[in-house]
Amino acid sequence: MPAEPRPYKILAGIVPCPHGWVVLRARLAGITLAAEGATVERSLRDLLDERPMFDAAAIDAPIGLDDEPGLPFRQCDEEAREYVGWPRAVAIYGVGSRSSYEYVTGTQAAQHEPWMNGADKRRHARLREVTMEIQPHHARRIAAGHPDVSFTAMNGDVGLRTSPWHEDGRQERLELIRQQLPGLDEVVSRTPPEGAHPKMVVDAAAMLWTARRQAGRAISRFPLDPVWDSEGIRMQLVR
């Protein structure tokens, strides 16, 4: 007999960190969101293999990609940068082509994508993992987002001007979390798991907010008209 449906949905906000992935999980029952403490997961593959699987998750990483090198920003990135405005647009980084993630190291990929800087090279390993592991069937449950896009949406479509690395920026973001996801600010304010910076846990909360909207089919997308890559994955950022 088929299993009875769960009385709740399993959500997650996922962001990269030097040691893997910061994950903020929660259960959504009706309008009640109950979040667990953040964890650091070493392997995206293991995360995707979790059972029961996520009903909806948002990840701070590109999924749909151009096949060959070109400009650093996809259409969705350009629209998202315009949406968040100055100065936070600089946090929406360039995205390599699918062929660039065939290279193991960021230094090798930079020879393929000359626009890459030091930060892009450091992010390469995590983004390569996304490219290797997330398949079209995963993309139905896991959406690509960005914390600055989510916080702008949480702030009434007004871009933030503070830095999340500074205390005033952290407090501004915690207040938005408090307003939009009551109770989650306490979870986010706990000591972060080993290998994660407090800023990354705050970012994961923004991704969890977007995952909740995805679960309720309330997300909007950049771009509005779908653009698909050669793997059948939509090149988009959601909020």
Give the SSE string: EEEEHEHHHEHHHHEE
Which sheet architecture does the biggest sheet show?
A: 6 strands, mixed
Beta-strand content bin: 15-25%
Q: Percentage of helical residues?
A: 25-40%
Query: How many domains in all?
Result: 1
Query: What would the principal axes of the Cα set say about the shape?
Result: globular
Number of helices, counting only DSSP H or I runs of 4 residues or more = 8
Mean pLDDT: 94
Structural class, judged by helices and strands? alpha/beta
Q: How large, in whole angstroms, is the Cα Rg?
A: 17 Å
Layout of secondary structure:
Elements: E1 9-17, E2 20-29, E3 32-35, E4 39-41, H1 44-48, E5 56-59, H2 75-84, H3 106-112, H4 118-133, E6 142-144, H5 147-154, H6 167-180, H7 184-188, H8 198-215, E7 221-222, E8 237-238
Parallel strand pairs: 1-5, 5-6
Antiparallel strand pairs: 1-2, 2-3, 2-4, 7-8
Helix pairs in contact: 3-4, 5-8, 6-8
